[in-house]
Write a structure and sequence with these properties.
This protein is an alpha+beta fold. The chain is built from three helices and seven strands; from the N terminus they run βαββαββαββ. Strands 1, 2, 3, 4, 5, 6 and 7 form a seven-stranded mixed sheet that branches. It starts with a strand and ends in a 15-residue tail after the last strand.
C-alpha cells in the first residue's frame, strides 16, 4: 500500500490504521520507520515533488520482493511543504518473522533514499530552494542512461 498525502503526515493516525488493517493477518513483526524533518541549515522545513508513475512502479517491485518473503510493505509520503519536526515519510514492514522485517525495513529505506523519484527543496523565508547538496541521482536517469 502506497499513500501520498498533501503536506505533513499524521503519524499516529497512519500507524494505527496500518496496525488495525493487519492486526489479524498473523504477522509476528510490525516494524515502522518514521522520517521527520529536522532543523538544519536554517531551513523552515522541506518541500517535496514526486513523479507518481515511477514511484508506484518502484514501490510495486518492493511489494513483490516482500511477498516472496511472506511480508507486506506499506509507505506514506508527503507532497508539498512539511515544516520542521513534522513527518514526510513513513514506511512499515509486516512479516511473520522479525529478522525478515528488520532486514527489509533497512534495505527498503536505504533504497528509497537512493531510488525513489522524489525531489527535495529547502523552505527558507517562504521560498523553495532545490536541495542539490542533499540529493542523490536516481539510477537510470539522465539523457545518456
Amino acid at each position: 500500500m502506497l499513500e501520498l498525502h498533501k503536506g505533513s503526515l499524521d503519524v499516529p493516525t497512519i500507524l494505527q490504521k496500518w496496525y488495525e488493517e493487519e492486526a489479524k493477518s498473523n504477522y509476528g513483526a510490525y516494524i515502522p520507520f518514521v522520517g521527520t524533518v529536522r532543523s538544519e541549515d536554517n531551513i523552515d522545513g522541506l518541500s517535496f515533488d514526486l513523479y507518481e508513475p515511477i514511484l508506484k512502479s518502484w514501490f510495486n517491485a518492493w511489494q513483490a520482493k516482500a511477498k516472496e518473503k511472506g511480508a507486506k510493505l506499506k509507505m506514506a509520503h508527503s507532497e508539498g511543504d512539511v515544516l520542521l519536526h513534522e513527518s514526510s515519510y513513513i514506511a512499515a514492514v509486516f512479516s511473520p518473522k522479525r529478522r525478515v522485517a528488520l532486514e527489509m525495513i533497512d534495505e527498503f529505506v536505504e533504497d528509497f533514499k537512493a531510488s525513489a523519484p522524489i525531489w527535495k527543496y529547502d523552505l527558507r523565508e517562504g521560498k523553495r530552494i532545490y536541495a542539490l547538496e542533499r540529493s542523490t541521482e536516481i539510477k537510470g536517469s539522465g539523457l545518456l542512461s
